[in-house]
Design brief:
This protein has 21 helices and 20 strands. By secondary structure, the chain is an alpha/beta fold. It folds into 4 domains: about 200 residues, Rossmann fold; about 160 residues, P-loop containing nucleotide triphosphate hydrolases (Rossmann fold, 3-Layer(aba) Sandwich); about 60 residues, no CATH class; about 70 residues, 2-Layer Sandwich (Alpha-Beta Plaits), CATH 3.30.70.330. A 7-stranded parallel beta sheet has the order 3-4-2-5-6-1-7, with helices on both faces. The protein has a 7-stranded parallel beta sheet with strand order 10-11-9-12-13-8-14, with helices on both faces. Strand 18 and strand 19 form a beta hairpin. The N and C termini lie far apart (about 70 Å).
C-alpha cells in the first residue's frame, strides 16, 4: 500500500474521483491509503489518527461507493462529539458525493428539530450527528436505522471524555447487527477498547503515529514567562509575527472570555469560541474566521475539535497543554496540506518540566526563544510597512500620488515628504485598528444616549412579544455571563426596547446578544442612537 500515490489506484468510482479532483486532493494521505481498501472490503476498522490527517475522506470515500440508490432511509450514520465537527463532516460528505446525488443531513442540538424531521421524511442517505440529537430522533422514531449499512464513531476519545459513551452504546444497539462499524480516535483508552470488543467484528487496525502527523512542517518554540505579564508577552509576539490566521488556546471557558475581551480591547481583530456559545453564535464566529474578518480565534480544546480552516499560520498555547496528546491536537491545526506553520507555547517556570516531558514523548524539539522587546516589535512593524511600500511600488498606478509629491518637491525635501506621508499612513492604519476595539472603550459606540458610564442598546422586541423587564435582565445576565444587578434602565415599548448596561461589560453584552433569543424570539441588538 505504501507505493500508492493516486486515488485511481485505490479503485475509486469515477464520479467520486471527479469530486476529489475538484476538491484539490492530489494524492491520498497515509490513512486514506490504509483505510479505503479495508472499508471497501466491508471490514470493521479502528483508525488511530487525529484531525488533519485526512481521516474524514478516508471513510467518506469508500462508504459513499456502497450507497444503494433510491433508498429512503439512512444508509450511513456518523457520530461526532460536537456540532462544529458534525457540520464539517457533513460538508465533506456532500462535497465528495457531489456527483453521486448523495443526500446528507447534519443533526445536532441548537438547530430546529422540525426542519431535521422534514428532511428525513423526504429521504436521506447519510446522517451526521451528535449522540444526544441522534438519540432524540430515535426516541421520536423520526430516525429509522433499518437500512443502515455503516456506523462511524469519529473522535471517539472526545465523545468518551464528554460522557457520551452510554449514548453511543444505546445508538449502536438500535442498528442492524450486520452493519459495518468504523471507529476513529486520536487515543485508544480502555473504554474505547471495550466498546470496540463489544460492537465490532475482527476490526482492521490503522495507526498514524502522532509525531509524524503534526511535527514535520511546524516550527515549534516556547517563551518562558518568568516574571513577565502573560498578556503583554502575547501581544508582543502577535505584533512581531507575520500572522495570517491564528488559533489561541486557553484551558477554560472563563479564560477564553477574558483573553478574547482583553485582546479585543487592545485593538486586535479577534473572536472566541467555546461550549457555551449557541449554534448561531458559533456559525457567525466561524464564518468571520474563515472569511478573514478576524485574524485571531481564542478557543478551548473541545470547542476547537472539528475546526477545519485552511491557512492557519499560527497556533498559540496561551495556557500550556496538560499532556502530549493535547499538544499534538492543538498544533495540528497549522502546517496542513503541505504548508508550514508555527506553534508557540507560553510557559510559566513551574510548567517547564511538563513541556520537557511533552518534548520527550512526542519526540520533537521545541526551541526556547527570547521574548520580543518593544524595540524588536517596532523594528518588525517598520519592516512590515517597508514591504507594503515595495508592494505598492510594484503594482504601479502611482501617477495621482506622484503629482502631489512633485507639487511639494519645489519647497520641501522629497524624502521628508515621503516620510511624512508614511507617518500619516501608519497613524491612519493604527486608528483603523483601534476602531475595532472592544465596545467598553470610551469612544467605541459614541453617544448612545445613556447615563454616564453606561451604553444604551436597542432591541427589536417589545410588549407585543410579551417581553418584561425580568425577561431582559435574565436573558442578558445568562447569555452575557454578567450580574443582573448591574443592568441599568430598561424602557419597553410595543415593538422595541432600550436597555442600558455598564460600559465595561458592553462588549460582552454586544457579542452575546446580537443574534440571541428571548422567550423564543430572535433578537437584533444594536447600539442605540443619541436621544
Amino acid at each position: 500500500m505504501a507505493s500508492i500515490t493516486s486515488f485511481e489506484e485505490l479503485g475509486i468510482d469515477r464520479r467520486i474521483l471527479k469530486s476529489v479532483d475538484e476538491m484539490g486532493f492530489e494524492e491520498p494521505t497515509p490513512i486514506q491509503v490504509q483505510t479505503i481498501p479495508a472499508v471497501l472490503d466491508g471490514r470493521d476498522l479502528i483508525g488511530q489518527a487525529q484531525t488533519g490527517t485526512g481521516k474524514t475522506a478516508a471513510f467518506a470515500i469508500p462508504l459513499l461507493m456502497r450507497i444503494r440508490a433510491e433508498q429512503l432511509l439512512p444508509q450511513i450514520l456518523v457520530m461526532t462529539p460536537t456540532r462544529e465537527l458534525a457540520i464539517q463532516v457533513a460538508e465533506e460528505f456532500a462535497r465528495i458525493g457531489k456527483y453521486t446525488g448523495t443526500r446528507v443531513l447534519p443533526v445536532y442540538g441548537g438547530q430546529n428539530i422540525g426542519r431535521q424531521i422534514k428532511a428525513m421524511e423526504r429521504g436521506i442517505d447519510v446522517v451526521v450527528g451528535t449522540p444526544g440529537r441522534v438519540l432524540d430522533h430515535l426516541s421520536r422514531k423520526t430516525l429509522k436505522l433499518d437500512q443502515l449499512q455503516a456506523a462511524v464513531l469519529d473522535e471517539a476519545d472526545e465523545m468518551l471524555d464528554m460522557g457520551f459513551i452510554e449514548d453511543i452504546e444505546n445508538i449502536l444497539s438500535a442498528t442492524p447487527l450486520e452493519r459495518q462499524t468504523l471507529l476513529f480516535s486520536a487515543t485508544i483508552p480502555g473504554p474505547i477498547v471495550r466498546l470496540a470488543q463489544k460492537y465490532m467484528r475482527n476490526p482492521a487496525r490503522v495507526s498514524i503515529n502522532p509525531q509524524f502527523v503534526a511535527a514535520p512542517d511546524i516550527w515549534q518554540r516556547y517563551y518562558d514567562l518568568r516574571n513577565q505579564d502573560q498578556l503583554e508577552v502575547l501581544c508582543r509576539i502577535l505584533d512581531a509575527e507575520a500572522i495570517e490566521r491564528a488559533i489561541i488556546f486557553c484551558r477554560t471557558k472563563k479564560g477564553v472570555n477574558e483573553l478574547s475581551h482583553a485582546l479585543y480591547s487592545r485593538g486586535y481583530p479577534v473572536d472566541h469560541i467555546h461550549g457555551d456559545l449557541d449554534q448561531n453564535q458559533r456559525n457567525r464566529v466561524m464564518k468571520g474566521f474563515r472569511d478573514g474578518e478576524i485574524d485571531l480565534l481564542v478557543a478551548t480544546d473541545v470547542a476547537a475539535r472539528g475546526i477545519d480552516v485552511q491557512n492557519i499560520s499560527h497556533v498559540v498555547n496561551y495556557d500550556c497543554p496538560q499532556d502530549p496528546e493535547s499538544y499534538v491536537h492543538r498544533i495540528g491545526r497549522t502546517g496542513r496540506a503541505g504548508r508550514t506553520g508555527t506553534a508557540i507555547t507560553l510557559v510559566h517556570p513551574r510548567e517547564v518540566p511538563l513541556l520537557r516531558t511533552i518534548q520527550r514523548l512526542v519526540k520533537v524539539r521545541i526551541e526556547r526563544r527570547p521574548i520580543p522587546s518593544p524595540s524588536d516589535v517596532a523594528d518588525r512593524q517598520l519592516e512590515i510597512w517597508r514591504q507594503r511600500l515595495l508592494d505598492a511600488m510594484a503594482t504601479g498606478n502611482l501617477a495621482p500620488y506622484r503629482e502631489v509629491i512633485e507639487g511639494l518637491a519645489d519647497d520641501y525635501d522629497p524624502s521628508e515628504v515621503a516620510a511624512a506621508a508614511l507617518k500619516l499612513l501608519v497613524k491612519d492604519r493604527t486608528a483603523a485598528v483601534e476602531g475595532y476595539r472592544a465596545p467598553d472603550q470610551g469612544d467605541y459606540f459614541g453617544d448612545t444616549g445613556a447615563e454616564e458610564g453606561m451604553v444604551r442598546f436597542f432591541l427589536n422586541i417589545g410588549r407585543k412579544q410579551g417581553i418584561t423587564p425580568a425577561d431582559i435582565v435574565r436573558s442578558i445576565a445568562e447569555q452575557a455571563d454578567i450580574s443582573g444587578g448591574v443592568i441599568g434602565a430598561i424602557n419597553i415599548y410595543d415593538n422595541f426596547t432600550f436597555v442600558e448596561v455598564p460600559r465595561e461589560v458592553a462588549h460582552q453584552v454586544y457579542q452575546a446578544m446580537r443574534k440571541a433569543t428571548i422567550k423564543g424570539c430572535n433578537i437584533n441588538l444594536e447600539p442605540a442612537r443619541p436621544r
